[in-house]
């Protein structure tokens, strides 16, 4: 079953590219109960990673700090109030970072330093744990060919974690080997990922234009940048100009 590119673009207004900025605040409001206690008990196995731009992380960090500061005095001691305001994020590639949410809530609460202290782990351990949860829950990369553009693939997950699937290293490695060893992907929103194995510059320019268009029509777009799967990891990718070689290749 294929998906038309024409159908892809109007869907931008219907997708959620990242947790809404209010999500971090709502997760810490008294109406939601004591968030800091609620995610201590048995919920580490529900922590999943999300991709966000550095700008989005900064916004979510401010929202989280404001939410904590709005709590009634005495609900948190000074040290816990400080760690509760520290949103956990880890570097991914270029301007993208990995944040972490406990799946299942609406909104899903984001993980702060206070939770890491409760769990007795550091951010690197949290990332490994969240990636393992992602593998157990999804495991693969559901993708379809874009109609009339057989060189272009789109991740069609319908679960809010299309972008997160960029963190599934083994499936991407296997897919890259099956398709020729090199992949270029765009992740304009949380629910849309497009990728290709082509080395044709005109098609890569078209991919960049597609990602730019999707990102520009979404108020909370992740990024218009392209990324290349190379040597077992994603790297920021620029479409080479005429006469230039691809990274890792020779003229």
Q: Strand order of the main beta sheet, please? A: 1-5-6-8-7-9-10
Secondary structure: helix percent: 25-40%
Distance, first to last CA:
38 Å
The tally of domains stands at 2
Which parts are unreliable, with pLDDT below 50 for 5 consecutive residues or more? 1-39
Mean pLDDT: 78
Strand element count = 10
Q: How many helices does DSSP assign? A: 9
Shape: elongated
- The proportion of strand residues reads 15-25%
Radius of gyration, CA atoms, in whole angstroms: 19 Å
Give me the strand/helix succession.
Answer: EHHHEHHEEHHEEHEEHEE
Would you tell me the structural class of the helices and strands?
alpha+beta
Main sheet record: 7 strands, mixed
Characterization of the model:
The chain is α+β, with helices and mostly antiparallel strands. The protein folds into 2 domains: 3-13 and 139-237, no CATH class; 18-137, no CATH class. Helix content is 34%, strand content 22%. It is built from 9 helices and 10 strands. It has helices spanning 5-8, 21-26, 35-38, 54-69, 78-84, 113-119, 123-137, 169-179, 201-216; strands spanning 3-4, 47-53, 89-93, 96-102, 143-147, 149-155, 183-189, 192-196, 226-230, 233-237. The strands form 2 sheets. A 7-stranded mixed β-sheet has the order 1-5-6-8-7-9-10. A 3-stranded antiparallel β-sheet has the order 2-4-3. It is elongated and about 60 Å long. It starts with a strand and ends in a 14-residue tail after the last strand. The relative contact order is 0.16. Mean pLDDT is 78; it is low at 1-39.
């Amino acid at each position: 079953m294929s998906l038309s590119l024409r159908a892809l673009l109007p869907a931008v207004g219907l997708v959620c590219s990242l947790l809404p900025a209010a999500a971090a605040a709502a997760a810490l409001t008294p109406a939601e109960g004591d968030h800091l206690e609620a995610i201590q008990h048995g919920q580490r196995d529900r922590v999943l990673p999300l991709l966000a731009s550095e700008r989005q992380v900064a916004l979510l960090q401010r929202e989280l700090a404001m939410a904590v500061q709005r709590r009634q005095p005495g609900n948190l001691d000074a040290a816990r109030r400080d760690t509760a305001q520290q949103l956990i994020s880890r570097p991914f590639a270029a301007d993208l970072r990995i944040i972490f949410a406990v799946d299942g809530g609406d909104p899903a609460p984001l993980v702060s330093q206070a939770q890491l202290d409760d769990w007795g782990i550091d951010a690197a351990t949290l990332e490994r744990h969240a990636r393992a949860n992602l593998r157990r829950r999804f495991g693969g990369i559901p993708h379809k060919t874009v109609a009339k553009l057989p060189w272009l693939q789109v991740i069609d997950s319908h679960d809010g974690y299309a972008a997160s699937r960029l963190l599934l290293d083994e499936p991407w490695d296997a897919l890259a080997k099956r398709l020729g060893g090199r992949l270029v992907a765009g992740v304009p929103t949380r629910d849309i990922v497009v990728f290709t194995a082509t080395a044709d510059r005109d098609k890569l320019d078209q991919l960049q234009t597609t990602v730019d268009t999707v990102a520009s029509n979404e108020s909370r777009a992740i990024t218009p940048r392209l990324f290349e799967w190379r040597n077992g990891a994603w790297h920021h990718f620029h479409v080479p100009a005429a006469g230039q070689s691809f990274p890792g290749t020779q003229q």
